Amino acid sequence: MDPTVDKLPENTHSKTILSLNAIGKRFGKVTALEDVSVDIKEGEIFALLGPSGCGKSTLLRIISGFETPSSGELLLDGQDMTRTAPNQRPVNMVFQSYAVFPHMSVADNVAYGLKMEKTPKDEITDRVNQALTQVHLQDFKDRMPDQLSGGQKQRVALARALVKQPRVLLLDEPLSALDAKLRDAMRLELVKLQESVGVTFIIVTHDQSEALAMADRVAVLESGRLRQVDTPSALYQKPVDAFVADFIGRVHTFNTQHISLDNGSVTALVDELDSITLPLTELPDGIQAGPQPESPAVIAFRPECVSVQLATATPPAPDAHIQFNGFLGDIAFQGQHSIVEVTRGDQQSVTAVVNHQELHTLQGQPLGTPVLASCAYSDLMLLPPA
Ligand SMILES: Nc1ncnc2c1ncn2[C@@H]1O[C@H](COP(=O)(O)OP(=O)(O)O)[C@@H](O)[C@H]1O
Ligand SMILES: [Mg+2]
Fold this sequence. Notes:
Elements: E1 16-27, E2 30-41, E3 45-49, H1 56-64, E4 71-76, E5 79-80, E6 91-94, H2 106-116, H3 121-134, H4 150-162, E7 168-172, H5 180-197, E8 200-205, H6 208-214, E9 217-222, E10 225-230, H7 232-237, H8 242-247, E11 252-262, E12 265-270, E13 275-278, E14 290-291, E15 298-301, E16 306-310, E17 321-333, E18 338-344, E19 347-354, H9 356-362, E20 370-376, E21 381-383
Parallel strand pairs: 3-8, 3-9, 6-7, 7-8
Antiparallel strand pairs: 1-2, 1-4, 4-5, 9-10, 11-12, 11-14, 11-15, 12-13, 15-21, 16-20, 17-18, 17-20, 18-19
Helix pairs in contact: 2-3, 2-4, 3-4
The chain binds adenosine-5'-diphosphate and magnesium ion.
Magnesium ion (MG) binds near residues 56 and 57.
């Protein structure tokens, strides 16, 4: 996957369907969510991404109505839903474990919610058929769940939610019960399905590659707070801080000791490196010039921007590249590209993602061969600390 290419242009979805305004949630002494505000757009796939315990499921449960926020409000299509009961909200949840009833056929599983609501029989038949067609299970109506694969069970769970014709579908770690290969296939399938039904999806995941691959926009949560809400490419290219940079892909970070801004030129004195001129004309939000005390700003760069060459080759221009002398470590061949480790004694090693050509000059060299890793100044980011 190329994370620099967004699935859709940014302005495809413009109408707000769901507004979260300053949502907070406390469980006794635990603050699960704090001041969460975001507008979710009609028809988008919106991902809530963050490490375990950051509040993703709590936020999803607040949207579904299974949990009440301690503060803030929630508007759906402009209507206040903060205290509305779950079954009165045009919102449906697909659970992590799918919760497919084992003793009911596929069709009965999908019909269950409508039967509970005493929907007329003919309408149930039509809507069940339509939902099963949407998830491509029209030929599996009479099967029992134990005759289905993991992916098919997950589609039954989806059909069961879609049959209620929700405005917003909530999916909590929808692919985590599947094995790795099926998970990749289901990502694409879910995105295609969402495009064909057009229902707004809010997906909770702790897997950044899943969020980047599937979502139109991603909210990165950490300890109950939203760090950044952006398109996948913006998160990757313009992370607001070192936490987001590290959570979205890999990044090397080095602490700064001093930052200065003179005549539209930003320079930083960096641990292990010399003074560096950064590709900036002003200081990013949250960063002050001067000495960097306790929690210093960091310079960061991605392994994709690092080149590796033999120490005997001509080095790149030293005034435009940071350079690390080191030794050739492990090379992991990954098809289109390879990952090369450059070890540096007791200093942090540097990882590079290299193409075939670069790999060619390194392959066959013994482990420990002296090499030079470098990264252009233009690929450096200056970020507030994590
Ligand atoms: N019912 C509850 N009672 C007490 N603490 C809870 C409850 N639900 C969640 N929490 C706490 O709130 C925080 C966020 O949990 P959760 O939303 O489940 O995180 P995530 O889904 O991101 O892993 C955690 O510290 C968790 O222990
Ligand atoms: Mg969770």
